[in-house]
Amino acid sequence: MTTIAVVSAGLSEPSSTRLLADRLGEAAVSSLVAEGTPAHVVHVELRPLAHEITDAMLTGFAAPALSAATAAVVEADAVVFVTPIFTAGVSGLAKSFLEVLDKDSMADMPVLLGATGGTSRHSLAIDHALRPVFAYLRAAIVPTGVFAATDDWGTDGDAAALDGRIRRAGADLAWAIRASRRTPQEADALPATPDFASLLGGLGH
């Protein structure tokens, strides 16, 4: 079954960032299922991990909860990553989480980017502040990023436009998953270890 890790870097509860992340994950799953590919999401909420992320940046070691979260991300088949935008940039929590990942762990990973903010003036932040970070990590970033301003959750017209962007982005991620050249995890790629009897049998030749 295809696994999509949905990462939310929202700082409040409830969080519009988490809401957008969930809807993007659901859109991707719906698109995959419609094409006959079973899929599900795993949620990674960064807010409860803030102290562990800081400690990992200072010490180089990840506590158990953070280790589980990073494993969920790098072992997934695709990632939805959504951050709030502050002062025209991604949140420090989002950037710090990406900095504790191994620099090669996201290579070729299909990634859908999203962001939330108070005003549409921040809508280009996905391209100038978030996309370059994932490009450095060599992720396979889908073309459609989704930004949701406060007004996008309000009037019917804006909400309908946001729904359309979410559906398109979900379809883009589903396509990227089907076309992915993501290599197997290293443990899966290791050759099988011969048993002891086989090794002894080979000595007779």
From TrEMBL:
Using the record's annotation, list all stretches that form the NADPH-dependent FMN reductase-like domain. 3-153
- Pfam assignment, any one: FMN_red
Q: Which UniProt keywords apply?
A: Flavoprotein, FMN, Oxidoreductase
Entries under SUPFAM superfamilies matching the protein: Flavoproteins
**What InterPro entries does the database record attribute to this sequence?**
CE1759_FMN_reduct, Flavoprotein-like_sf, FMN_Rdtase-like_dom, NAD(P)H-dep_FMN_reductase
- Origin, by domain of life? Bacteria
- Check the record and name the PANTHER family matching this protein: FMN REDUCTASE (NADPH) (PTHR43408)
- Put simply, this protein is called NAD(P)H-dependent oxidoreductase
The species is: Curtobacterium aurantiacum
